[in-house]
Amino acid sequence: MTAPAPAVIVFAKYPAPGEVKTRLAERLGPEHAARFAETFLLDLLDGLGSAPALAGARRYLFFDPPPARAAFQALLKNAGVEGWELAVQATGDLGARLKDALGYVCDPDPCAAVFLGSDCPELPPSEVAKALSTVAGGRAAMYPAADGGYVLLALPAGTPDEVFDGVPWSVPETGARQFRSLAQAGLQVELGETYTDIDTHADLCGMKVRLAITPSRCPRTWRALHEIPV
Predict the structure, then answer these.
(1) Distances (CA, A) of 175 to 29, 54, 141, 150, 169
(2) pTM as predicted
């Protein structure tokens, strides 16, 4: 029997003013912060969806809150972003939501999966493809975040969802504890380059400097950076 195609899973909250990027909103205001949350997500989804190296992967957007399905459908349609199956995030902490998503995409047969958030649109699709190659060889892959978390986690087929148990979320130790949990499950883990989640005004300013070199990496965000005083 042919193994199911790997799954690329993006977690995102609907970019409603006042509900997303609250630390960024402290400096820019809720409307502008939500605008950036939207451009981050669309740049990430569009880049992953148009990458030839990821053409064979199944793509899922796990969204929150549950009533936002129609709003997300309209957002993606208006932006011309296609090929993403929408699924509602489970309740509970991030570990519970990751477990649920893994079970959803790998039912009924075990499959490889790559998890991403929407806070790091600068992560190149080529690195996601590299992570898929890693898990195809039976190893896990993790790309650390500068704040101690991680921006990408790739799991080979058959990984037990217990690897998320006991990991503290949204703390500087998150990445290290996730790495330890994977190792304790018997997985070899390849660490990728460290990236920055864009959560604060300082993060956004740093991103603006980097995108000046390669603006095509995040075209919507690059335009927003010139339309919104940063």
Answers:
(1) 30, 25, 12, 6, 9
(2) 0.96
